[in-house]
UniProtKB/TrEMBL annotation:
Coiled coil region boundaries: none
Gene: xpt
One term of GO molecular function: xanthine phosphoribosyltransferase activity
Protein name (record): Xanthine phosphoribosyltransferase
UniProt-annotated location(s): Cytoplasm
Keyword Cytoplasm: yes
Predominant localisation class: cytoplasm
Originating organism: Agrilactobacillus yilanensis
Catalysed reactions, semicolon-separated: XMP + diphosphate = xanthine + 5-phospho-alpha-D-ribose 1-diphosphate
Binding site for 5-phospho-alpha-D-ribose 1-diphosphate: A128, N129, G130, Q131, A132
NCBIfam families with a match to the protein in the record: PRK09219.1 (NF006671), XPRTase (TIGR01744)
A Pfam family the protein falls into: Pribosyltran
EC number in record: 2.4.2.22
Sequence positions that bind xanthine: L20, N27, K156
Length: 199
């Protein structure tokens, strides 16, 4: 998605060899106009899939997921990372290891909000090692719901997440696919749109 790639080049900062900081429009400050365009793009990509629910994980998946939900006109559920006093029983849970933060989180979703009638689209901000998405896929299996596909805002193709998902034969669409970071430069899979992003 050209507008997203342009925004990454304008506002993204490459940290080290494998991290892209995008807190200007996605991970801290959120650009709702861009989120809306991304929601519409996810709708265009998955509109024939009879989606009944969007699923994500808190916190940074919520903004793109809500705009996808708006485009599909379906509810959005986010898995919680911390146990809530109002969410005690009747939970689907899975364990997600974060390579970036080096911690394991239990993620959970109330059984009230996901069931075997649902056809689910997972939305997340980053696909890196694929742990978050795998936790959500596990929860969808526990609910005996159908997984229609996975929509990702920014995929880092050089990490192992995509390979893990492809092995399961799941339909994945990423709005921006990053092949590498080289000397502070973002290299996209479609190389036409590659310039310096080292501001
Ligand atoms: P995964 O997202 O594919 O599971 O991979 P990984 O375990 O490496 O990611 C752990 C966390 O780091 C996730 O956020 C993920 O979104 C984020 N992340 C991974 N790569 C990048 C990157 O290049 N840039 C940024 N900004 N984030 C990255 P999380 O722990 O779920 O946190 P949050 O959603 O509460 O922000």
């Amino acid at each position: 998605m050209k507008i997203l790639e342009d925004r990454i080049l304008k506002d993204g900062q490459v940290l080290g060899h494998d991290v892209l900081k995008v807190d200007n429009f996605l991970n801290h400050q959120v650009d709702p106009m861009l989120m809306q365009q991304m929601g519409e793009e996810f709708h265009r990509l998955f509109k024939d899939e009879k989606i009944t629910k969007i699923l994500t994980v808190e916190s940074s998946g919520i903004a793109p997921a809500v705009f996808a939900g708006l485009a599909f006109k379906v509810p959005v559920v986010f898995a919680r990372k911390h146990k809530s006093v109002t969410l005690k029983d009747e939970l689907y849970t899975s364990v997600v290891y974060s390579y970036t933060k080096k911690v394991s989180n239990h993620i959970s979703i109330s059984k009230k909000f996901l069931n075997s009638d649902d056809r689910v689209l997972i939305i997340d901000d980053f696909l890196a090692n694929g742990q978050a998405v795998q936790g959500l896929v596990d929860i969808i299996k526990q609910a005996d719901a159908d997984l229609a596909g996975i929509g990702i805002v920014i995929e880092k193709t050089f990490q192992k997440g995509r390979e893990l998902i492809d092995k399961e034969g799941i339909h994945v669409e990423s709005l921006a696919r990053i092949k590498a970071f080289e000397d502070g430069k973002v290299i996209f899979m479609d190389e036409a749109n590659t310039i310096n992003a080292n501001n």
